[in-house]
Design goal:
With 135 residues, the chain is mainly beta. The chain is built from 2 helices and 6 strands, in the order ββββαββα.
């Protein structure tokens, strides 16, 4: 059997870092992934809850922030729980095996602000040339 998902999207909030009682780091964040097609009256993105463990969790908490373009390679988990009103609920979550930072670190981290020149170029592919690609 095979359970693998690869997502590329932007964080909807800053990662939240916690530690288990035995000291293992876990970070959680939400990723908005644009849909390739749009139907009238339908959302234009899907939102996924992501959990990442260990050193990667700490790196995500330190270097990712709301709006960061990020790739996640992981597995889907289906969780059942009872909400505060006693209703049975099901959630679809992603546990990351690998998280790649696809945009420059943003926001105020370590007392530095990102430059407006970097913000202006975000998502700009005008300088991209496929001349050197092997395919």
């Amino acid at each position: 059997m095979f359970n693998k998902v690869v997502l590329i999207g932007r964080l909807t909030r800053d990662p939240e870092l916690r530690f288990t009682p035995n000291g293992k780091a876990v970070a959680s964040f939400s990723l908005a992934v644009d849909r390739s097609f749009k139907r009238e009256g339908q959302p234009e993105a899907d939102f996924f809850r992501i959990s990442v463990w260990g050193k990667q969790a700490e790196n995500c908490a330190n270097y990712l922030s709301k709006g960061s373009l990020t790739a996640v390679d992981g597995r889907i988990e289906i969780n059942k729980y009872t909400d505060k009103d006693g209703q049975e609920r099901t959630s679809v979550d992603v546990t990351a095996n690998d998280v790649r930072f696809l945009s420059s670190p943003g926001g105020k981290k370590n007392g530095q602000e990102k430059s407006s020149a970097t913000e202006d170029k975000k998502g700009d592919m005008s300088d991209f040339s496929d001349d050197g690609l092997p395919f």
